[in-house]
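In the design runs reported in the main text, the only information available to the sequence generator was the tokenized backbone. The following block is the verbatim input for one such run; it is reproduced so that readers can re-run the procedure and compare outputs position by position.
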């Protein structure tokens, strides 16, 4: 079953529930990248790094574990600092997948969110891209999704929100 995406209010609660810079950077990193936790745990194996493109823009690049496809996600200037800080800290300590799940569960508990996992952030990332008007093909590429039916489930959430909007309006 697909995890429910976080609402804007829940995102704010999660960020406010972070006790350390590392926790805050982890949450922001997952929110802004939608990355699988496996890539994060195995940074060196998947070539996870920040690089400068020909146009001077910064990109986060890595290789998808399943498909071996190289992914590239633009890093805006306002998130560059916490992305770099988080990656250095994570690499230095060589955290496990279980450790990240534990940290997120603790943050979720403090925020009053029952099930908070890396997939919650991945789903939130995808739904937010769609809500912002991104084309489904762009979302598919940014998330490295090979099965379009998975993305169709993401669309259900945005359709639900559209229907709720229409139900609230009196036309």
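Verbatim output:
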């Amino acid at each position: 079953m697909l995890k429910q995406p976080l609402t804007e209010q829940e995102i704010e609660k999660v960020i406010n529930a972070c006790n350390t810079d590392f926790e805050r950077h982890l949450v922001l990193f997952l929110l802004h990248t939608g990355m699988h936790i496996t890539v994060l745990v195995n940074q060196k194996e998947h070539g996870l790094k920040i690089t400068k493109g020909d146009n001077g823009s910064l990109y986060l690049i890595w290789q998808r574990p399943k498909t071996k496809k190289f992914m590239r996600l633009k890093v805006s200037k306002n998130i560059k600092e916490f992305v770099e800080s988080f990656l250095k800290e994570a690499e230095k300590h060589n955290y496990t997948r279980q450790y990240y799940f534990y940290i997120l569960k603790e943050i979720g508990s403090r925020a009053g969110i029952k099930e908070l996992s890396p997939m919650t952030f991945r789903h939130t990332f995808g739904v937010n891209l769609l809500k912002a008007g991104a084309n489904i093909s762009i979302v598919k590429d940014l998330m490295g999704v090979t099965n379009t039916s998975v993305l169709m489930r993401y669309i259900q959430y945005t359709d639900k929100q559209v229907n709720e909007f229409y139900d609230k309006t009196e036309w």
